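Need a sequence for this fold. Nothing fancy.
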């Protein structure tokens, strides 16, 4: 058993969730998840998602130049009082997908951060209609920003949320 591997366990009977993640390397050893090779390492299990993305229950399942696909399998911990997946959780999934889509079009060593995020909730996402699929596609990649569009789909393929965002890019050697 890989003791550094993330672990996530939900026990519906006790209404508990336990998870762990590997320690982040120190600041000098960190590198952004940039470039398709880094994303393919995540998909293959040789590299881990960020702790924040992992905690939201999202998994990277596909990556190609300009686009990613992620899945999210929430449990009761992700529900609002109305019994549907909380919008903040969905927004977190989308934010992660925007970042990973951006990573497909920038060179290794480029950092990125969300500059703007707009999420439109189209229909409630019910737990029985998960795992959700999140598709994110780069619309424009410039010198200092990247514009990304995303959709969150239920298991029937119906759009539950659509989003757009702008990612700020921190290219190597730029001030």
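Here you go.
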């Amino acid at each position: 058993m890989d003791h550094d591997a993330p672990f996530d366990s939900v026990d519906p009977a006790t209404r508990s969730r336990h998870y762990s993640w590997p320690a982040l390397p120190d600041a000098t050893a960190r590198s952004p998840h940039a470039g398709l090779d880094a994303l393919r390492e995540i998909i293959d299990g040789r590299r881990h998602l960020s702790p924040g993305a992992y905690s939201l229950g999202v998994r990277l399942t596909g990556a190609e130049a300009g686009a990613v696909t992620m899945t999210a399998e929430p449990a009761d911990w992700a529900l609002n009082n109305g019994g549907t997946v909380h919008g903040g959780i969905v927004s977190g999934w989308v934010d992660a997908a925007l970042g990973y889509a951006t990573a497909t079009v920038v060179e290794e060593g480029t950092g990125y951060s969300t500059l703007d995020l707009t999420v439109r909730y189209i229909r409630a996402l019910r737990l029985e209609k998960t795992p959700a699929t999140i598709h994110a596609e780069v619309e424009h990649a410039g010198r200092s920003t990247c514009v990304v569009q995303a959709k969150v789909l239920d298991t029937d393929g119906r759009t539950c949320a659509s989003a757009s965002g702008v990612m700020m890019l921190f290219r190597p050697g730029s001030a």
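For context: The chain is about 15% helix and 35% strand.
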